[in-house]
Design a protein that fits this description.
Length: about 280
């Protein structure tokens, strides 16, 4: 007979939408020890809510207002001071779970000056671990005291900031980010559009030289200097993914920033339109 795993005073929170195919794995990795699980659902049309509830999560429904607002709302619903943010396509590794149980042994993590812990992520492209190119170790502040910080306002790639000391944990969060064909590309185009909107809102102008040296430098930095070359063509693909996302973001931002220029007709356009207007109708 298995010895029951004790719960620890940590609230785990997720934002979810149409992720019934993967969120169960995330919840299964925290259910044995988490004191509570909070899921904020943006009115999913699949079985996401039912899956979340089957793992003991408390589900709240809220219309989508962006990553940061959703996360801040989910965080505000947590009952415990200590909170762990998790994505629907992530799982807590067994090593990290064991480390958390030891960390929150009675009287340990609840005292002292530590306000949060950074946790590294292991990213997977389908069934292959991306070990280089800046993908690993990729440190993120995920476990933190809500009384000492929380999510800051960002349009994308949300961040937690705290006051006080921040430690690092040895275990990792596994990120099963791109598990289907072409999912990586669909994902980066969505992020590129959001980041392009943010760049435009912040008046970060795009110039010709940005389109050249930034994506090229991004690829070379990841492939050569961050070790992606060790994984051969696979490493080149994952490095190019970042470079291509950056190029797409810059091109989208340039288009957004030059709407007036693009919508001012030049002489060739006007001539072509006049020619079409004089064509005999069938």
């Amino acid at each position: 007979m298995k010895t029951p795993v004790p719960t620890i005073p940590v609230s785990v929170y997720l934002i979810v939408f149409n992720c019934a195919h993967e969120v169960g794995n995330a919840l299964a990795s925290v259910r044995p020890w988490a004191d509570e699980i909070i899921c904020v659902d943006s009115f999913s049309t699949d079985d996401t809510v039912a899956v979340c509830e089957s793992y003991g999560a408390t589900v709240y429904k809220r219309a989508w207002e962006g990553y940061s607002p959703q996360l801040r709302y989910a965080e505000s619903l947590c009952a415990n001071d200590w909170a762990l943010r998790l994505d629907a396509d992530e799982t807590v590794s067994p090593e990290l779970a064991t480390e958390l149980l030891a960390l929150f042994a009675p009287g340990l993590a609840t005292t002292g000056d530590t306000s949060g812990y950074k946790i590294k992520r292991r990213n997977f492209l389908q069934k292959r671990w991306i070990s280089g190119g800046g993908y690993y170790p990729s440190w993120h502040l995920r476990l933190f005291r809500r009384s000492r910080g929380g999510h800051i306002e960002r349009k994308i790639h949300e961040k937690v900031k705290v006051t006080g000391g921040v430690g690092k944990l040895a275990g990792c969060i596994d990120h099963w980010c791109w598990q289907a064909d072409f999912e990586m590309w669909e994902n980066f185009l969505n992020y590129a559009r959001i980041e392009a909107e943010y760049m435009t809102e912040q008046n970060q102008r795009v110039h010709f030289w940005n389109l050249v040296y930034l994506p090229v430098g991004n690829f070379l930095r990841r492939f050569l200097f961050r070790g992606a070359w060790r994984q051969g063509t696979f490493g080149a693909v994952t490095s190019l993914r970042h470079a291509c996302e950056q190029l797409a973001r810059l091109l989208m931002a340039w288009e957004m920033q030059n709407r007036e220029f693009l919508n001012t007709p030049d002489e060739t356009y006007l001539s072509a339109r006049r020619e079409r207007s004089t064509e005999p109708k069938p």
